[in-house]
Design a protein that fits this description.
By secondary structure, the protein is α+β, with helices and mostly antiparallel strands. It contains 23 helices and 22 strands.
């Protein structure tokens, strides 16, 4: 019983694909039956192919006709296909029935691809919804009670234990902890928060238990606003899509009206007999159908998508391959995009009587007992050195950590914390630390007993290929490159300077990034956004082209983006732009060829110098020609 259920579920979820496959299979069998002279079987199979493959196009075409009073290409294809089949039956030229079925098959495949694109938006929203817990632990008369998030009210007090996700936005009433806000704000390091600080839903609590007061409705939380922004941005049709829709409707109207005029006026104007008139009218519908125009675009884009996939670039649809070649401005997220998102030891400075290794080993001895990312970075840097873990270790959140190593007290932390234990802080180190902090680096002091041993600078690592990528994009003619980040201004400007970006927007929330993208679009039209986090999702959705990092990227960023860099290699952005520009060139060439053939065939039909078989050969030949041309992008 399970297998039929799965089969039924697959059929429902991929109905358009199944219809296209069945249409193609029945078309092949019908052609084979005609080839063998089995007319009865062919006349059974081919109508089934027409119905299965053309049902959705016919339904949409008729719906548009009756409800919106508009003609579209869906209806035109059905009319052309039925016209070809009718003409084939009338003149007993049964191969024309095959031509009509091919037209329907092409549209069935197109409809399936469109269906998959529409489903992506729903998956994006579902992925966002899964980021927040379903319930919250509410304090009620001194007792904890779990209730659904939707039932939270303003003023409720909730408890969040270490390692749990914050269920909704609120204000800390009691407790002290380190919160990982990278998913929302893009900050590279956890943020220490205590009484009075605001916390956001979907951020991860660190080591401390928190008591939080709900200060706004759950549906107004930052993560819920992110969800709504993604949904809104993805449903807004870009100008290019609106232009294509208008062109389809206009083209269909012209062809249908021309076909009707050609089927009725010639007997009165030029004295044609009705058989010749209908013959010419049906030939016109076949040769004027936009199959070659369709083939001018999709094979090219699919070839480009395949080419990109071989190079670690995942294009989610062909439209984005075209758009990436037109990009005039690019916005980069910082954390996890231009940087690796992993903090590491940047530099170590020791005082004269100690070595850098002494400083690192001493710091690692106490930090080995810490779960803080800075402590982990120090321990990782000291992995190849010989050191012994400290005892009696005590950590003061947001300040530092102390312990006993080799019978001496070891202190590691910020300047204010370390000053409580040492006689003085060396002035030369204070000046150096100040310059590091202005560059956005985090600095910890290391002391043993009452003497300072040195300082360790911690920073998020800039990707090795970031600077070369920015240089390459500028050479490709990208007019504006900016950085968008939720991190502080000092860190942002430091990274921007290292990679060669001049324009920086720092301390941004998700909606702020979205606003910057919209302003860039007003000035540059086609704008790309490169990001990896949940906080980037609205901007990725709004951008003309959203590009996500495949390894470091969050599930939401991957679902929302149009292009995914599977190996997190930024230099592939330039490769994607080159593919996009080549695809534009080939598509333009193909459109010229397709329109040229259509015009020649229409003129031949009006002048009476071609018959229907020659028209079909010219029509199908032009389709094959532009298809082969599109396959050039596979190289």
């Amino acid at each position: 019983m399970l297998y039929p259920q799965r089969l039924g579920q697959f059929t429902r979820e991929h109905a358009d694909t199944v219809a296209a496959l069945l249409c193609g299979f029945l078309l092949f069998l019908g052609w084979f039956a005609l080839h063998l002279g089995w007319l009865g079987l062919a006349f059974l199979l081919l109508p089934a192919a027409y119905v299965i493959g053309g049902y959705e196009s016919a339904r949409e075409g008729l719906t548009t006709l009756f409800k919106e009073k508009e003609l579209d290409v869906d209806l035109l294809m059905i009319v052309a296909a039925i016209g070809a089949a009718s003409l084939g039956l009338w003149r007993r030229e049964y191969h024309l029935i095959i031509d009509g079925a091919i037209l329907i098959l092409i549209f069935a495949i197109s409809g399936a691809l469109e269906g998959y694109a529409m489903a992506r938006t729903e998956r994006s929203i579902r992925s966002l919804m899964s980021l927040t817990p379903d319930t919250a632990r509410v304090l009620h008369q001194g007792r904890e009670e779990e209730i659904p998030i939707s039932q939270l009210k303003m003023g409720d007090e909730i408890v969040v234990k270490p390692g749990e996700l914050i269920p909704t936005d609120g204000i800390i009433l009691s407790g002290y902890s380190s919160l990982n806000q990278a998913a929302i704000t893009g900050e590279s390091l956890p943020v220490e928060k205590t009484v009075g600080a605001e916390v956001f839903a979907a951020t991860l609590n660190g080591y401390g238990a928190l008591q939080i007061k709900v200060h706004k409705p759950a549906q107004s939380s930052l993560i819920q606003r992110v969800i709504r922004l993604v949904e809104q941005a993805q449903t807004e049709a870009p100008p290019s899509q609106e232009f294509i829709d208008r062109f389809e409707k206009g083209y269909a109207k012209v062809i249908v009206v021309s076909g009707i005029l050609l089927a009725t006026l010639p007997p009165f104007l030029w004295g044609w007999d009705w058989e010749t008139t209908i013959y010419r009218a049906l030939t016109f519908l076949v040769v004027a159908s936009p199959c070659a125009l369709m083939a001018a675009i999709m094979p090219t884009l699919l070839s480009g998508i395949a080419n990109g996939a071989r190079q670690g670039i995942l294009f989610k649809n062909g439209a984005q391959l075209e758009k990436i070649g037109k990009v005039r401005a690019i916005a980069f997220d910082k954390t996890g995009t231009l940087t690796t998102g992993q903090v590491q030891v940047f530099q170590i400075i020791s005082v004269s009587e100690y070595t850098r290794d002494d400083v690192l080993k001493t710091a690692a001895s106490v930090e080995s007992s810490s779960e803080h990312p800075i402590g982990k970075a120090i321990v990782q840097a000291a992995r190849d050195l010989n050191w012994v873990g400290a005892i009696e270790v005590q950590a003061l959140p947001g300040q530092g950590i102390v312990g006993i190593a080799q019978e001496q007290q070891v202190i590691v932390g910020n300047a204010i914390f370390v000053q409580q234990y040492v006689t003085n802080l060396p002035e030369e180190l204070q000046e150096l630390v100040q310059s590091w902090e202005q560059e956005g680096k985090t600095v910890v002091w290391v002391a043993q007993g009452t003497e300072v041993m040195g300082v360790i600078a911690i920073a998020d690592e800039v990707r090795s290929q970031a600077a070369a990528t920015i240089t390459r994009l500028k050479k490709l003619g990208v007019e504006q490159i900016v950085m968008l980040t939720g991190d502080n201004k000092e860190t942002a400007h430091s990274v921007a300077k290292a990679v060669g970006i001049d324009q920086v927007y720092a301390q941004l929330l998700p909606e702020d990034k979205l606003d910057v993208i919209r302003r860039l679009q007003q000035q540059y039209q086609t704008v790309a956004m490169v990001g990896d986090g949940i906080n980037d999702a609205p901007a990725l959705a709004q951008a003309s082209v959203g590009i996500a990092m495949g390894i470091s990227g969050s599930d939401v960023a991957l679902e929302t983006a149009d292009i995914v860099l599977m190996a997190d290699r930024l230099e592939k952005i330039a490769v994607a732009m080159h593919l996009g520009r080549r695809s534009q060139l080939i598509v333009k060439q193909n459109i010229v060829v397709a329109l040229g053939f259509i015009i020649l065939l229409i003129l031949g039909n009006f002048l009476g110098n071609i018959n229907l078989p020659i028209g079909v050969i010219g029509h199908e030949g032009s389709t094959v020609l532009v298809t082969l041309s599109g396959l050039r992008l596979l190289k």
